[in-house]
Design goal:
Layout lengths: L1 H8 L1 H19 L5 H19 L4 H5 L5 H17 L11 H11 L20 E3 L14 E4 L8 E4 L1 E3 L9 H14 L2 E3 L7 H6 L2 E6 L15 H8 L4 E7 L11 E2 L6 H7 L7 E2 L10 H14 L5 E5 L4 H14 L5 E5 L10 H6 L4 H14 L7 E5 L5 H9 L4 E4 L1 H7 L21 H4 L4 H25 L13 E4 L5 E3 H4 L7 H4 L3 H9 L16
Length: about 550
């Protein structure tokens, strides 16, 4: 199958060579007019050879000659949109405007646009940030947030934008190295994803957030249980700055990860501690922490095993009583994670059932505000930092999430776009045309690690810089100065409403003192000993 795939990718070059030979013969035998065809086919052949040896564009190395059609359409698209009124949104994860912005920043170009916005600013649901008549200077250095509670001995200064979870196996080795080298160059963090701490991650010398999923890849026993000794040994690596325990994922909450056997080569199997060639399916939940109390104890154990490094949890928020049960467990046990990453339902994945991506999980705005309020009302917010992931690509996205309660953000799809991904949606087929999401060595080798690392670095640097410019235009310099009143939404009646009115914001310790009416039922349903709600007759009066 691989040989057939390679032949298909290079068929345009083969046809150009054959065309040159046949037209040359016809020019010698039939008519001199065939020399025009010879010139055309020789030009195509030379183009194909150049495509194979150049190192800038992976798609041209994988698809010589025909790959140029993609770039031609990229240049043609603005004219098509102008004359035919094409919509900004084409059904893919990001609008074309956002994708163009990411590509430009990755190339080192300042994203500028003539005239006004093409958005309908009067449509219901439109959101905007409110500027100040007294803007502030932009800080010279990028803003970071200190992650690490009172029990953490090695806190980490987390940048405003980092690379979200993407596993080796789902991504190729060169793609992982390019992301890692870009993160190292820019001084931001790379989440390993649940696929284990691979040699590609470590070779990049980036600041790593080692994600531990339900399959415990990279720290598992042969039967799939957590291996404490292996975890302690691997987490001691200086490159590992934080540990992240993944409970659920926004794109497919309640469902473990799946990696097709065709992508489980020897290197992937070694990183995960599984058998090569076999499809890898993660369990839907953690067998070591079935209750909120067990979960926070496990977090404390991971922190001890890692030598005091920050340990966090990642989840897609579901029922509010489950979030409050987790807060009650933190209070009763005197243990809290150093950070929590809220993953929105709009988050992406390499493959998931359509019903999961379309119908399950809480959107990031609702999940983030819920988690922020629960921590504030429980008196835990100062000790626990909040991260946000899901459809974050621009500086305004970052500031919006900071207003909604986050301390930092993570991005996956935008980083892939900066890496050269064209969103062909072939991640699960092992036939990614750009070498990003494949374990086919020929496709993966087309990706130029050094060039793509610089693209990732440039994109992150420019986006964070623009986020800080936006904050300055709002009249603040640092995230803790942001206020929900700075974000407005257009309502169905045509009026706008600020987030400080649109959503309820709890005061510190309010849940402990006197839970407000909207929260009291869920607070009394929550138990530190179970994620299931307390039956009505058992609840305290």
């Amino acid at each position: 199958m691989n040989s057939i795939s390679r032949a298909t990718r290079y068929i345009s070059l083969a046809l150009a060579v054959c065309g040159a030979a046949l037209s040359g013969t016809a020019a010698l035998v039939v008519s001199a007019w065939w020399w025009f065809a010879v010139a055309l086919f020789l030009f195509l052949t030379a183009t194909g050879v150049y495509d194979l040896v150049q190192r800038r564009h992976a798609i041209l190395r994988n698809y010589p000659i025909v790959g140029h059609m993609r770039f031609a359409m990229e240049r043609l698209r603005p004219a098509v949109r102008q004359y035919f009124g094409e919509s900004n949104v084409d059904g893919r994860p990001f609008s074309r405007d956002v994708r163009d912005l990411v590509y430009q920043r990755a190339k080192g170009l300042e994203a500028q646009k003539a005239f006004g916005t093409e958005r309908d600013v009067y449509r219901p649901g439109h959101e905007f940030l409110v500027t100040s008549l007294a803007p502030r200077p932009v800080p010279e250095r990028p803003v970071t947030v200190r992650v690490g509670g009172p029990d953490c001995r090695e806190p980490y200064d987390m940048p405003l934008l980092n690379i979200s979870a993407m596993s080796f196996g789902a991504l190729s080795g060169p793609a992982v190295r390019a992301l890692g080298e870009g993160a190292r160059e820019g001084g931001f963090a790379l989440d390993t994803g649940e696929g284990g701490l691979s040699d590609h991650h470590l070779a990049s010398k980036a600041d790593l957030v080692w994600q531990i999923g339900t399959g415990y890849f990279g720290c598992r026993t042969p039967d799939g249980q957590f291996d404490a000794k292996l975890f302690a040994a691997r987490s001691a690596d200086p490159a590992v700055k934080c540990i992240l325990l993944k409970l659920s994922q926004g794109a497919k909450p309640g469902m473990g990860g799946v990696l097709p056997g065709a992508k489980v080569n020897a290197a992937v199997a070694h990183a995960r501690g599984v058998q090569p060639g076999r499809t890898v399916v993660s369990p839907p939940n953690h067998p070591t922490c079935p209750t909120p109390r067990a979960l926070v104890r496990f977090v404390a154990w991971l922190r001890t095993l890692s030598g005091g490094k920050p340990v966090g949890i990642k989840l897609c928020v579901g029922s509010r009583h489950e979030v409050l049960a987790l807060c009650k467990a933190m209070i009763e046990e005197g243990i809290a994670p150093d950070f929590i990453v809220v993953d929105g339902a709009e988050g992406g994945t390499g493959a998931a059932p359509l019903e999961f991506t379309d119908a399950l999980g809480m959107p990031l705005t609702d999940g983030l505000i819920t988690m922020h309020n629960a921590l504030v009302g429980s008196g835990l917010r100062d000790a626990v930092k909040l991260g946000a992931s899901g459809r974050i690509a621009t500086g305004s996205d970052i500031v919006t999430r900071l207003v909604q309660g986050a301390d930092f953000t993570n991005s996956a799809r935008a980083m892939l776009l900066a890496l050269g991904c064209i969103q062909s949606q072939q991640c699960h087929t092992n036939a990614c045309p750009t070498g990003v999401a494949t374990q086919d060595p020929r496709r993966a080798q087309a990706l130029n690690v050094a060039d793509k690392a610089q693209r990732v670095h440039r994109y992150q640097k420019s986006t964070v810089r623009n986020a800080q410019k936006i904050m300055a235009s709002l009249g603040v310099q640092y995230p803790h100065e942001l206020d929900p009143a700075m974000l407005h939404r257009r309502m169905p009646n045509g009026l706008t409403c600020s987030y400080d009115i649109l959503h309820e914001w709890l005061a510190e310790h309010e849940l402990l003192a006197d839970p407000p009416y909207g929260w009291s039922v869920d607070w009394h349903r929550a138990s530190a000993d179970s994620f299931a709600p307390i039956p009505p007759r058992s609840r305290p009066l």
